[in-house]
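Ticket #4471: structure output looks truncated?

Reporter: J.K.
Steps to reproduce: submitted the chain below (101 residues) through the standard prediction queue, then opened the result file.
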Amino acid sequence: QGWVMFVSVFCFVITTLLFILYMAGVQRCSSGWTVVDVFYHFIAAVFYLSIAVLQASDTRFGLFFGKDFRINIAATVFAFVATLLYTIHAICSIVRWKTSS
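Returned output as attached by the reporter:
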């Protein structure tokens, strides 16, 4: 479960940092920020897919009953939702990158 926490905290911190930088208008200084956006969201999607699969596997094969089982199901669902959202953002970033070039 350590990998799940690492990916969640890492992606939260980097996403928050990128959000603050984009709100400050840093992306207008260089076209390289679009590449950073594409690369980061692709990596985040792959990371979240890996933890979603691991969490689903732990939930399926683990000996969880009652409350722990429901918590692991919720964690699995939210990991797959986060994977979907990061993937959509990566695709939108690729489209924006290609149209701006």
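Triage note (M.O.): checked the attachment and the full token line is present. The chain has a mean pLDDT of 86.
Status: closed, working as intended.
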